[in-house]
């Protein structure tokens, strides 16, 4: 994960997820994405970097292009992140229109051969 937030990210300073710049990449942010504003919550803990993304209108899931946009805001081009589809028994759905990006800290994520991607 990058060291500091991209200038386009507007940090949310108050409320449940409020933070200040001392939190680095952890916190809640609003950003103008490719198709409108996105609300993002970012954090690191238990060996993982995590970002959750939802359009501010909360009437749809983020589009692929928006997830790529957010990935590039939080991670470098060289980093691989994952959008999991867990086993059904492990589903926890707190919000219908949120998608997540994950990256284990200090672990290289295995990827299929390039020709298959």
Form type: globular
- What's the CATH architecture name? 3-Layer(aba) Sandwich
User: What would you call the structural class?
Assistant: mainly beta
Main-sheet strand order equals: 1-2-3-4-5
**Strand-and-helix sequence, N→C?**
EEEEHE
Number of helices: 1
DSSP strand tally: 5
Largest β sheet strand count, sense and barrel closure: 5 strands, antiparallel
Mean pLDDT: 95
Strand content: 25-35%
Uncertain residue ranges: none
Task: Please tell me how large the radius of gyration is.
Answer: 14 Å
CATH names the topology as Streptococcus thermophilus LMG 18311 protein like
Count the domains: 1
Task: Output the CATH class name.
Answer: Alpha Beta
Helix content: under 10%
Quote the distance from N terminus to C terminus.
Answer: 23 Å
Write the layout of secondary structure elements.
Blueprint: E1 10-11, E2 27-33, E3 36-45, E4 48-55, H1 64-74, E5 99-104
Antiparallel strand pairs: 1-2, 2-3, 3-4, 4-5
Question: Would you kindly provide a written description of the structure presented here, covering whatever features stand out?
Answer:
The protein is globular, with a radius of gyration of 14 Å. It has one helix at residues 64-74; strands spanning 10-11, 27-33, 36-45, 48-55, 99-104. Strands 1-2-3-4-5 form a five-stranded antiparallel beta sheet, covered by helices on one side. The protein is mainly beta. It is built from one helix and five strands.
């Amino acid at each position: 994960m990058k060291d500091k937030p991209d200038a386009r990210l507007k940090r949310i300073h108050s409320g449940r997820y409020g933070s200040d710049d001392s939190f680095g990449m952890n916190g809640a942010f609003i950003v103008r994405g490719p198709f409108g504003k996105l609300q993002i919550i970012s954090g690191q803990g238990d060996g993982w970097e995590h970002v959750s993304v939802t359009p501010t209108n909360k009437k749809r899931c983020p589009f692929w292009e928006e997830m790529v946009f957010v990935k590039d805001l939080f991670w470098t081009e060289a980093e691989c992140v994952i959008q999991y589809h867990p086993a059904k028994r492990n589903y926890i759905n707190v919000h219908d229109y949120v998608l997540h990006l994950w990256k284990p800290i200090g672990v290289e994520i295995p990827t299929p051969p390039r020709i298959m991607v």
